[in-house]
Fold each of these.
Amino acid sequence: MPDEKVFNLCSARRTLLLGAGALGIAVLTGCGGDEPAPGAGGAPGGSAAPSAPATTGGNPFDDTGSGGGGGPQVPSDALVAADEVPVGGGLVVKDTVLVLQPTKGTFKAYDAVCPHQGAVVDPPYDGNPIIMCPRHNSKFKVADGSRVEGPAPRGLKGIKVAVRSGYVVRA
Ligand code: FES
């Protein structure tokens, strides 16, 4: 008898469910703990099998130097792939390093943290020779990171970089 089997699985609730009919059986099948309830196919709205986690694809810019496996060897001190840095502009990597390519094949880098109150500066674009801080509009020269104007007490700290194996790396 299916009803007796269900009652044996959850005797603590037996008295509550006597006479509850089909509704009681449905509740009892849900208290079986680890055992799947007989006849209970996937409940609507229940948890589905988790989707596969997004693959990282081997971030070449992490600090592990793992290189993502199988791909070209990425220097352990790589900041960014050289071909990802726009000519006449730049980008901020790791939230702390501003990498610039003022002219094709020439790379510069500065500490991206503004010396005024610590905002991350905006990279220049389209050949603009000025780096702007978005918080209080301090301006710095692309050429050497020196302060042009604004409340920043000094220029951006330079970071020596080189290109190795197609990546901008700390020199
Ligand atoms: S934080 Fe950059 S100008 Fe104030």
Note: The first helix runs from residue 2 to 9.
Amino acid sequence: MLVDYHVHAMGHGTSRHTPEEIALYLATAAGRGIAQVGFADHDWYLADYDLTAIKAAAGRFPGVQVRLGVEVDFLLNAGERLQALVSRYPFDFVIGSVHQLGEWGFDCVEDVERYQEWDPDVLYREYFRHVAAAAQSGLFSFIGHLDLIKIFNVRSRQPVAELAAEALAAIRQAGLPCEINTNGLNKPVKEIYPQRSLLERCFALGIPVTLGSDAHFAAEVGRDLALARELAWSVGYRKIATFFQRRCIMENL
Ligand SMILES: [Zn+2]
Ligand SMILES: [Zn+2]
């Protein structure tokens, strides 16, 4: 089964929650055989969520199950504020994503020169320290784009699975799935998140996976998810995590 649990119906403010615009996203999903679509806009758009519009659009696509989520920008020491965000609507799932180290939004092309300030291994350790804290926060349904820190193709010298060991232990301890996110293929790194060696370590640890395109436009829903499924299958996965009312339900991949 193909699912897309990482869809930004508002993009980066490029569209809105209206029945017409949401229907465009669902039409793409239906055309690509996506069984479940999880809408998860960035948390800074929460005030603009319109659940009625989502419901109205979903009613026009009975073949696609629609789930409601949010992608939360995880920050250290922000527990209370983040707790308020994830409690705001009756979410089916909440994505925990690390996009920022302190003040630095490391996935922003505008700030890419700041990579030069870091030794890559130290940078990766710092990133995965944040991922571990996200897993331990108890706020999330799954971890988004597990190795986003590679986005601009800055690679660690030490094997990434070693640098991520504590984060993976925390994810496993918390019982959280990780996301196979295909949007890395469209970034300078040109590789799915997470890279194969990291996914193999996840599998070895018994960490489940779900799938996400990170679509920011209707045409991108479900993009490259067949590749993500192939990758998961080749690593050994046969089940996939889906979400309903904050519960994780395993389905056949
Ligand atoms: Zn993200
Ligand atoms: Zn996203």
Note: The helical segments are 19-31, 51-58, 79-86, 120-136, 160-163, 165-174, 196-205, 225-235.
